[in-house]
């Protein structure tokens, strides 16, 4: 539970601007139309069914589509795993 809470803190700081606080793809940059592209929901089956390692690697590498850039300098490996745990355990329970 402590790791999930740490992941939540990192998620809210680095990810929620795009993905939204509940991970539904409705963050500030989306709702204000600063991004004119849909952001995938992190609580839907598409992301929730992915292996943890795949999600881990998207954070430093960016998305396959190229829309999400690398966040390797913002999140160290331990924090990336915390964010993944939060996406898989915290968001799903709260979203």
Structural account:
- It is a single chain.
- With 95 residues, the protein is an all-alpha fold.
- The protein contains six helices and no strands.
- It has helices at 2-14, 16-19, 28-31, 45-48, 52-61, 77-94.
- Helix 1 (2-14) packs across helix 6 (77-94) and helix 5 crosses helix 6.
- It is globular and about 35 Å long.
- The two termini are 17 Å apart.
- The mean pLDDT is 91.
Question: Radius of gyration from the CA trace?
Answer: 12 Å
Number of strands: 0
Share of β-strand residues: under 5%
Number of helices: 6
Range of helix content: 55-70%
The main pleated sheet reads as: none
Secondary-structure element pattern, one letter each: HHHHHH
Mean of residue pLDDT? Answer: 91
Low-pLDDT parts are none
Specify the overall morphology.
globular
- Kindly name the structural category: mainly alpha
End-to-end C-alpha gap: 17 Å
């Amino acid at each position: 539970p402590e790791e999930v809470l740490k992941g939540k803190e990192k998620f809210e700081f680095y990810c929620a601007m795009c993905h939204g606080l509940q991970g539904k793809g409705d963050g500030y940059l989306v709702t204000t139309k600063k991004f004119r592209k849909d952001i995938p929901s992190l609580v839907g089956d598409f992301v929730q069914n992915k292996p943890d390692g795949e999600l881990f690697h998207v954070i430093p590498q960016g998305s396959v589509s190229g829309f999400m850039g690398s966040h390797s300098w913002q999140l160290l490996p331990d924090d990336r795993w915390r964010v993944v745990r939060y996406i898989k355990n915290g968001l799903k329970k709260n979203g």
